[in-house]
């Protein structure tokens, strides 16, 4: 189960999370580990890819305190993913550790799924920022094409 008060990262994704940050002289597109995790969770949710963590990274990045997510307003993503996944508003309850744990686990698993997608998309890339931009542009163009296509299902009764 997820540890209440911290968001964990799978050990096999730790190097990717570090590489995606600009901290400590890195050239990644994100400023902090938390920024990477929020982006990855959103990506995992978009693609409905939720993957259990397995072994947890104990070093860089170590589990990230929830207060950090809240301080920049990203705690809302954790809550929204929890509510969307469970379809239960009770998961937003602040008074029960059980709900905190469940929300965190859902968020961690979507982030892990998103990191898997990024791992595949970034394989062989030299400039992660450029590759992510290309990936996002492709996603946007793909969505626009789907919206534009003539949908015959509206003629079915």
Structural description of this entry:
This protein has 157 residues and is an all-alpha fold. It has one domain (6-155). The chain has helices at residues 14-19, 33-46, 66-71, 75-86, 97-122, 128-148, and strands at residues 6-7, 64-65. Helix 2 (33-46) crosses helix 5 (97-122) and helix 4 packs across helix 5. The protein is globular, with a radius of gyration of 17 Å. The termini are far apart.
Number of strands: 2
User: What is the number of independent domains?
Assistant: 1
Beta-strand percentage range: under 5%
**Order of helix and strand elements from N to C terminus:** EHHEHHHH
pLDDT averaged over residues? 86
Strand order of the largest sheet: 1-2
Topology of this structure?
Blueprint: E1 6-7, H1 14-19, H2 33-46, E2 64-65, H3 66-71, H4 75-86, H5 97-122, H6 128-148
Antiparallel strand pairs: 1-2
List its salient traits:
globular; 157 residues; DNA_S_mod_dnd_assoc_4; mainly alpha; single chain; 3% strand; 2 strands; two-stranded antiparallel sheet
At a glance:
This protein has 157 residues and is mainly α. It is 54% helix and 3% strand. It has helices spanning 14-19, 33-46, 66-71, 75-86, 97-122, 128-148, and strands at 6-7, 64-65.
